[in-house]
TrEMBL record, chains A, B, C, D, E, F:
<dbReference type="InterPro" id="IPR042122">
    <property type="entry name" value="Ser_AcTrfase_N_sf"/>
</dbReference>
<dbReference type="GO" id="GO:0005737">
    <property type="term" value="C:cytoplasm"/>
</dbReference>
<dbReference type="Pfam" id="PF06426">
    <property type="entry name" value="SATase_N"/>
</dbReference>
<dbReference type="InterPro" id="IPR010493">
    <property type="entry name" value="Ser_AcTrfase_N"/>
</dbReference>
<keyword id="KW-0808">Transferase</keyword>
<dbReference type="GO" id="GO:0009001">
    <property type="term" value="F:serine O-acetyltransferase activity"/>
</dbReference>
<feature type="domain" description="Serine acetyltransferase N-terminal">
    <location>
        <begin position="74"/>
        <end position="124"/>
    </location>
</feature>
<protein>
    <recommendedName>
        <fullName>Serine acetyltransferase</fullName>
    </recommendedName>
</protein>
<keyword id="KW-0012">Acyltransferase</keyword>
<dbReference type="InterPro" id="IPR045304">
    <property type="entry name" value="LbH_SAT"/>
</dbReference>
<keyword id="KW-0028">Amino-acid biosynthesis</keyword>
<dbReference type="GO" id="GO:0006535">
    <property type="term" value="P:cysteine biosynthetic process from serine"/>
</dbReference>
<dbReference type="InterPro" id="IPR011004">
    <property type="entry name" value="Trimer_LpxA-like_sf"/>
</dbReference>
Amino acid sequence: MNESTFLQTLYHRNKKCYQVFPDKHATESFIDDLFHLCFVPKNNGLGGLMAIQRDYADLKVRFQSIVSGFLPDAKAIDDITNQFFEKIPEVYEVLLADAQAILSSDPAAQSLEEVLVAYPGFFATAVYRFSNVLWHLNLRLLARLLTEIAHSKTGIDIHPGATIGHSFSIDHGTGVVIGETCILGNNVKLYQSVTLGALSVDKKDATTKRHPTIEDNVVIYSGATILGGDTIIGHDSIIGGNVWLTYSVEPFSVVYHKSEVKVRDNNPFPEPLNYVI
Amino acid sequence: MNESTFLQTLYHRNKKCYQVFPDKHATESFIDDLFHLCFVPKNNGLGGLMAIQRDYADLKVRFQSIVSGFLPDAKAIDDITNQFFEKIPEVYEVLLADAQAILSSDPAAQSLEEVLVAYPGFFATAVYRFSNVLWHLNLRLLARLLTEIAHSKTGIDIHPGATIGHSFSIDHGTGVVIGETCILGNNVKLYQSVTLGALSVDKKDATTKRHPTIEDNVVIYSGATILGGDTIIGHDSIIGGNVWLTYSVEPFSVVYHKSEVKVRDNNPFPEPLNYVI
Amino acid sequence: MNESTFLQTLYHRNKKCYQVFPDKHATESFIDDLFHLCFVPKNNGLGGLMAIQRDYADLKVRFQSIVSGFLPDAKAIDDITNQFFEKIPEVYEVLLADAQAILSSDPAAQSLEEVLVAYPGFFATAVYRFSNVLWHLNLRLLARLLTEIAHSKTGIDIHPGATIGHSFSIDHGTGVVIGETCILGNNVKLYQSVTLGALSVDKKDATTKRHPTIEDNVVIYSGATILGGDTIIGHDSIIGGNVWLTYSVEPFSVVYHKSEVKVRDNNPFPEPLNYVI
Amino acid sequence: MNESTFLQTLYHRNKKCYQVFPDKHATESFIDDLFHLCFVPKNNGLGGLMAIQRDYADLKVRFQSIVSGFLPDAKAIDDITNQFFEKIPEVYEVLLADAQAILSSDPAAQSLEEVLVAYPGFFATAVYRFSNVLWHLNLRLLARLLTEIAHSKTGIDIHPGATIGHSFSIDHGTGVVIGETCILGNNVKLYQSVTLGALSVDKKDATTKRHPTIEDNVVIYSGATILGGDTIIGHDSIIGGNVWLTYSVEPFSVVYHKSEVKVRDNNPFPEPLNYVI
Amino acid sequence: MNESTFLQTLYHRNKKCYQVFPDKHATESFIDDLFHLCFVPKNNGLGGLMAIQRDYADLKVRFQSIVSGFLPDAKAIDDITNQFFEKIPEVYEVLLADAQAILSSDPAAQSLEEVLVAYPGFFATAVYRFSNVLWHLNLRLLARLLTEIAHSKTGIDIHPGATIGHSFSIDHGTGVVIGETCILGNNVKLYQSVTLGALSVDKKDATTKRHPTIEDNVVIYSGATILGGDTIIGHDSIIGGNVWLTYSVEPFSVVYHKSEVKVRDNNPFPEPLNYVI
Amino acid sequence: MNESTFLQTLYHRNKKCYQVFPDKHATESFIDDLFHLCFVPKNNGLGGLMAIQRDYADLKVRFQSIVSGFLPDAKAIDDITNQFFEKIPEVYEVLLADAQAILSSDPAAQSLEEVLVAYPGFFATAVYRFSNVLWHLNLRLLARLLTEIAHSKTGIDIHPGATIGHSFSIDHGTGVVIGETCILGNNVKLYQSVTLGALSVDKKDATTKRHPTIEDNVVIYSGATILGGDTIIGHDSIIGGNVWLTYSVEPFSVVYHKSEVKVRDNNPFPEPLNYVI
């Protein structure tokens, strides 16, 4: 394929895409500014309430612009915009409770402000909660794009279709994966590299519940993997680090990985340990 | 060292560097725009083919500018630019096959468009394939910089010198590491936190094959680690989650980590599990 | 809560925050430019020493602006600014030694320049070392914000309060977590997904040493987890991949995870391995 | 004065100025955007009414920011902002009548839209009318700055303190000067390089009426100069090109400059005419 | 009219305008970049021919975007774009001859480069010549907008419908006005504040020739005014400064304003001269 | 000439120009920022002296960059930069005296700040004085470009080679032209549309004194034209509006244009006055 044919190809493929693609950069700055307006004020407060009203009005117009490409007409754009923004105050209150849960459970957190400004788990949760509203408004590609933006910034990959209760917290978070049909109760806490995944590989099973249910007050430590749509982690359980679990456990369970560690206290080092990665 | 001496030091060190450093920000926006031109069109299609031609011409000029700092003369700049851009149509077709492979194997993926716009594994693969061309044109620092940019955005760290066959897919992807001398066949699928690493630590062995070979149709689940230049994973094998492997396995192997998990169904919690991280 | 009440709520909450929040975007571009001035020169050297002096003066003014919101008066702003910038030359020299350590120990690294421009471990270390100065100047929220910025870019989460000796190196790095009260000696090397965490969960224990001590010349391979404030890894030890350790080991120890891996060489695949994540 | 002393001098002078100077660039983009919102819409209409509300809210916040430097407190800022914006709809209607007057009297004007987008006389009139509101709100330096911005763009210099009736038109306009205490009636039309100036030179006379009065339905052709606070041009008069007038004329007067022109029909050219400028 | 009604009014008025208004800012940067590409190269030449091709392709796309609002369909946009750009090489050559004429006739001009970069008369002429092409392609509002942009920058107001021969020059230029139906021959030179205007005021006469004809090799000095559609200035004539002319003169005429100047060599000053403006 | 040939032509012409052209946009923002640093502070004073030092250092680097294209080597660039910046404090003081002269002589000026921020005559004078330094450093094209920038913004065209004494003031200013070899004494005041021009047309006379000399304490009213290298306006003279003068006058002269104005007090209007322009 020479350059001229290649550019023709791009042109014809791209034309088809204008109807379905949200603008990635516009979407990224939209969610960033929505998050900042709610939790991390950007300016010095001079404009006061007037400035907040202006910024909120601006977010609405930008949202209209983002969704305009893949909705049929101006009325649909206005309806979706109104439905999304009507939900924001409610989502905001749920998120403040999430932030409070992080503050309560992490000894290193010194203030609610630190949680808002410097906890990637809080940011990923916020983007998930906004995206989940869009998912239920049937803006699925936009919802997925938003959680991917949060994934890119935080290493935390929450599917917008997942169901997560209140007072949810993630600490550190890099490597966390939460699948589409997960159901999480209230007061769940996850550490880094936790996977809540599926067992079914068949594309025809895409609409069934493929991911686990985590009941209230469960803590899951770093590196744990829980798989399967029928797997239920009973409430008030603790799942230890690196555990690999494909079946249900009762409420109040404590699950831990029995790891055998060998220590050799004298040198020279055994050769197979001298690797680099 | 006082401020004045410090700035002098920076000045003398930096002067030396102008010959060897690609401009990080220019490189970042170059690869971002190249990816978008090929897969995620940015504008509303008004300019049509003319706009695509303009954008492609612009990418060429920006590429020239990026490589101009570390090539000897205008002719070398033009030659490298032409060689790189001649390869792009071919890389584009290979990447469309990668996207198709992701769509086929992930039940959560709803359309090819979703894969193009919202799968970090696809983005990292694309940047790797473009970088690999540069690696073979001997622009090694630039190639490395590009894959580091993808690493920063996706948590997926693929060395530009690696060899990867067609229909390659990575899901979620955070924490994936693929070393310089890896050889991957066709239809390989990786999940998050997979490491394909080396065993040799000695700097003098830097030019030997230090990383494993993965044959066709292999799936490697999350958290698996495969190490060593002589390690070959035979075709049509499955490597389970958290497996740690430093030797070869036959074709059609199924390898899984035999994990012992203990469950205690009554509280109070044993003290050593009450940790935070 | 209707829109009007919601915006009033944001207004009143945000007003309180102006005194305590550093501007996230200004902080992000500040640390990025400081890093580039020191290690990855951006322009073509034309302006020479004059340009470096100008850029350094610019960084000072921007630093003043960032800290101005949460310091009482102009004198405090000037004092903190001077104290921070006086430390920079010293931090710079320590960081060059870190870069040299990475170059020496990684066979894939081809030049010091590659380390400076394309190693996320080096970037995260640099941001940590600058933040650590701020932590000791009692600018704790700003210090935390800075390391979170590095976490977002690299997947490496180092608390600014941690203590880390010279010639420190991290390779790949995605998923690394280093807690607030960790103490690391000299010549420590970490791979991806290493966690150095705490065992205590009680908020009242926030001021005690909750994270481990790693002595000189220790290497910790990918996926290893070391927990607890009393845990000491003796000097010249090697901690293998995926090891989970909650107690001390002697100097010159070699610790490895005894992993049982099962291989079945004939198909059909056992059902429970056919999962997706 | 060496550089160090010079910068100290600037610092001390400038500090005094922060209280009294509106920000020139912010002011320039404010008036430009206010004019465009009212008369020359910038975008493609997608955002609809919502976008106009947002832009108007934005203009208010920016106005607050511009005046914040030289008003005593937040209440004064809010009051002035409200008073100015309450006047805008009224000014808007007067300006539409001005545009209509231009369209009616200029055979080259093809549509009202052409007048709005491409007549510098209309732009200068619009800026004058907005500035005149500010002048009467006692924001005199800001008002002056605004008309200077229009002067710079159009070559038309109207003092914000001047009084001008409805249906006012200026054609071409370069070089027009209208002084502070001028009073112009309705349906006045001016051509380029018309000066309406003062006769008094004494600083102590700064508060008296120093500039002429032009009654309704007067046309003043290019290059005419009319001077003096007691000079009254009676209604329905015509003032010819290049007229120099320092006394009053009756209503329905026609005033013209009796110019003697000499023509010599054969060459060579007389030397004193061979000049360049 | 309250604010809400006012914004509704703007909304309804503006909606009507989207079909007819070219975007003022896009137009301004388009003509600026076209002028610079042709005469005042902006960059350092690195990109070479490739960069010029890219910039030219970019100008085409931007032109398409500017005219897209007021043309019926994609085909019309493409046709107009192609017709305009096909004329550019020819216009370019005529403009180089204009620049050469300025260089030859102005003793202060030291090089052709100085004329290209620093003569407002040359810039205004260039914009006029480009606009004149658009005028004849029936893009009249766009053509007018372009000459108004040049008017704003230079104080020189040339109507895009005027007809001007080759080797045309304007020196200084502030205040020059050239009307729509003027016809100027070759080698005409104008100084600042020259008006070539109309005598007819009636809107119904808008389509007749209302402005004068200036034949070849005429020089018109500063402040001269020539009016009327039947007025013809014969070739090789000189029109002196401040002349006011409403009738034709023969070829080789020399026309000068017989100005009576009085000098009083002793003080005190007569009161009527002590004016300010 | 087809498009391909045309772009080749531009490429070859432009290549030649890179050595001689200052970058117009960089030059424009340089002079704007230099003016603002000296007279109209942009920010809110937070950065204090440190910010001024940074901005001054920045101006030096940008000046280096502007002149780098047409100077032979780094040493020449440094020398010219130092020589120009050493002159700035002195020019600054002369300009403050100019501003004071404007304040004293214009009854409409209410404060020194108004003069600095809103008098185009002051801006044009400032740019002239900076350009005059460059003219004498032999950077003639750059000096001309700077005064053209001021001409474009203010309509005031002062040649950088002119010689102008202290306490110089221009009011309104649109249309003022001051030629290259003019010599103006101290306390000279000009109004709008004053021309100080040449009589010689011959290119070979380009190096002789072609423009007039204006001695101390002279006022020249609007529209006056004074021509010729031998023309000397004696000190303490007044030149009235619209005067056309090509010979010298004694000190203490009062020169005025004896204008005959006819008034007809009854209608209908005589046809020849019913013109439009």
